[in-house]
Design brief:
Keywords: DNA-binding. By secondary structure, the protein is α+β, with helices and mostly antiparallel strands. It is built from five helices and six strands. The strands form three sheets. A two-stranded parallel sheet has the order 1-2. Strands 3-4 form a two-stranded antiparallel ribbon. A hairpin with a 2-residue loop joins strand 5 and strand 6.
Length: about 170
């Protein structure tokens, strides 16, 4: 009795999330995450991961938007490549703030990853192997990555998302 109620409540919540995403967005890009790579922590964490149902929202969106409206994106490198200049930060070590050595950008790591995934969805990307390492490069034609970032992304970040060295918002 109670488990059925909980499933129904979760299903209603998933449908509401999908409805909001559908009303706010055109095409949707989702990370192609694999649960198997996340079973590395404690037993409680492993149980939480195994019980979670990430694919249900993706299935609902695919049903509403069709196959053309939902794109699965490779999450590789989304959090350690600079979304502004493409520089690779190899030593994040679990830091919450991404700091670029190329252009000096300081940004929340999750937000940087989300911007990278958006840019991959919008412009497309190529996976290359350079020196035995996987490298993801954007396919930006005619515009430089920095110029596009400064024109489109930066104005939307004004209001507390860009972090300064002291940890406060600019």
């Amino acid at each position: 009795k109670y488990s059925q109620r909980e499933r129904n409540r979760a299903r209603r919540h998933q449908l509401e999330i999908a409805r909001v995403i559908q009303s706010l967005c055109g095409p949707v890009g989702l990370e192609e995450l694999k649960k198997q790579g996340m079973y590395t922590r404690s037993r409680i964490w492993n149980r939480r991961i195994s019980r979670s149902d990430w694919r249900s929202i993706a299935r609902i969106l695919e049903g509403r938007l069709g196959e053309a409206g939902v794109e699965e994106l490779d999450p590789y490198g989304s959090s350690f490549y600079c979304s502004r200049c493409g520089w690779e930060n190899k030593d994040l070590n679990g830091a919450d703030v991404f700091v670029c050595g190329g252009c000096g950008l300081r940004l929340d790591r999750q937000l940087n990853a989300a911007i990278n995934l958006y840019m991959r969805m919008r412009f497309g990307y190529v996976v290359k192997w350079v020196g035995g390492r996987k490298r993801v490069e954007l396919r930006m034609e005619g515009a430089s990555q920095k110029a596009w970032w400064d024109r489109v992304v930066l104005p939307s970040l004004v209001g507390g998302c860009v972090l300064t060295r002291g940890g406060g918002a600019e």
